[in-house]
Automatic annotation (TrEMBL):
Its EC number is 2.7.12.2. The keyword Secreted does not apply. The lineage of its organism: Eukaryota, Fungi, Dikarya, Basidiomycota, Agaricomycotina. It is an enzyme of class 2 (transferase). GO terms for biological process: cellular hyperosmotic response; p38MAPK cascade. ATP binds at K37. This is mitogen-activated protein kinase kinase. The chain holds residues 185 to 481 of 481 of the full protein.
Amino acid sequence: FAINMEQFQLNEELGKGNYGTVKKVLHKPTKVAMAMKEIRLELDDAKLNAIIMELDILHRAVAPEIVEFYGAFFIESCVYYCMEYMDAGSLDKLHGAGVPEDVLGRIAGSMVRGLKFLKDELQIIHRDVKPTNVLVNKKGEIKLCDFGVSGQLEKSLAKTNIGCQSYMAPERIKGESQNNLGTYTVSSDVWSLGLSMIEIGLGQYPYPPETYSNVFAQLTAIVHGDPPELPEEKYSEEARDWVRQCLAKKPEDRASYADLLDHPFLKRDRARKDVDMVGWVRIALEHRAKLAEVAQA
Ligand code: ATP
Ligand code: MG
């Protein structure tokens, strides 16, 4: 069945990205709360139709680590995309000063399983792995969203704005500057995964704008500098080594998803029965609410 705008009650805004706005909505016929993303594109109807058709494969992306897709439609020059509402939002606003190691292990495990599922079952490379695209709910589940399934959509969202936080692997940064678009492989996602782990563990993006006078200096550090590491005081050698396996500068030296799942850090994570993800989400949300209050005052 197809969804359309008349079926929705629009509620509060959940966030804004470079390409659109995400709102909480109620799907009235089913009474299901959803998240609806609006992407404005200056395209003709044929191209918009092609995007809606390409997005259809998302109906097959059903896994515990993937945000569920409910459907998409377009009105005038906007694509509307409906997905599972994740009631604790994205990881970028939940990590505080850095998450404890057991929680980092759970997040890492979920992300790897999600990425491996996309690749093995659907032959999809994510292409935009970063904390804002990792969503959390109060049940303590961690799920991925915003992976690249539509060639037409990717082309239309001209990635001119890389922003001040790049999760792009060194070979992609180099490739872009050489206008070489054929360099994206699954190992580029592994780099972005490692960088996301560092941000969540450190509590901040590891190439902070304060340190680099401009985006060029920052990208140069990613390409030519040593990769960042998890802090020694806070994390075990196993955790630190796991992240190191993701952040090898040469793509061919990075671990595969199977290697990452087989690593002692994630083996230990799977053996543990006592990681309190629900408790962690509750505390992280309280912390986020306090920060919001301070920002308001
Ligand atoms: P970019 O535009 O660079 O991809 P982004 O991922 O932050 O950045 P969006 O994908 O437009 O941009 O999402 C905006 C914000 O909306 C996210 O940061 C997230 O906090 C929130 N959000 C997105 N999808 C959901 C969802 N399904 N449930 C709850 N919150 C969501
Ligand atoms: Mg996103």
